[in-house]
Amino acid sequence: MSLLQNLALSIQDNVRQLESEVGEDQNQFFAHKPVVSKFDDLSYTHSQVAVELIDKLRADIKALEAAITPAKYKLTNLGLSSIKASALDVAIELDITDRIEAMGGSVTIDELATKLQVNANKLGHVLRILAAEGVFVETTPNNFSNTRHSLELTSAGNGKDMISFFARECSQSTLGLYKSLTSPEARNSFGPETAPFTFAFPDSRSFLEWLTRDNNAKSAKKVMMGVVPYLNQITRPALIHDYPWSALGSARVIDLGCGPGDAAVDIMRQYPDLRWTFQDLPSVVENTEKDLKSRLPPDVLSRMRFEAQDYFQPNKSKGDVFFLRGVIRDYGDEETLAILAQAKEAMRDVPGARMLINEIVCGAPALISNTKPMDPSSHNIPSNQSSMIETANLMASSAQSIFGGCERSLYEIQKLLDQTGLEIKAFYQLRSFTAMIECTVKNSA
Question: pTM above 0.85?
Answer without folding.
Answer: yes
